[in-house]
Design brief:
Blueprint: H1 2-26, H2 32-35, H3 47-70, H4 75-93, H5 97-121, H6 123-127, H7 130-151
Helix pairs in contact: 1-3, 1-4, 4-5, 5-7
Length: about 150
């Protein structure tokens, strides 16, 4: 029985560990979000760890589905996960808002490409990534306006 769920468990743990490590690295700088001028619709800081935990779980389930279907996970998944890992470091620790905006646009493109690739392999795996795409688009909006407001 455990063997049946192992790909899901492993992939969920990997995604959560990546997110958790980024959280540990940025935890001392997360107060930056409270200090910057934010655009309308900006959520309170408490929302982010909840949403990201859900998204990492969905990423892991999705990657598990792809692995069970294909026997491997495409490189685009690992690349977007790496880019995802670096974004909070760029934004919170470095406070390089223009670079963070450019980086998150890259992430957004990679997420779209990953969804397209996953769709070819397993449609449900692709659909499970849609909340991640929506949240990344929303984070792109937030990052753009935080950069814009901080630049002027």
């Amino acid at each position: 029985m455990l063997k049946k769920y192992k790909p899901y468990i492993v992939q969920i743990l990997i995604a959560l560990l990546v997110g958790g490590l980024a959280g540990l690295i940025t935890r001392g700088s997360f107060n930056v979000y409270g200090e910057v001028i934010k655009p309308p619709l900006a959520p309170p800081p408490v929302v982010f760890p909840i949403v990201w935990s859900i998204l990492y779980i969905l990423m892991g389930i999705s990657a598990g589905l792809v692995y069970k279907t294909e026997g491997q996970i495409p490189f685009i998944y690992w690349l977007q996960l790496f880019v995802n890992f670096l974004w909070p470091i760029i934004f919170f620790n470095m406070q390089a808002y223009l670079f963070a905006f450019i980086w998150i646009v890259l992430l957004l493109v990679l997420v779209v490409l990953m969804i397209i690739e996953f769709y070819r392999i397993n449609k449900l795996a692709a659909y499970l990534q849609i909340p991640y795409l929506i949240w990344t688009a929303f984070a792109t909006y937030l990052t753009f306006f935080i950069w814009l407001y901080s630049a002027y």
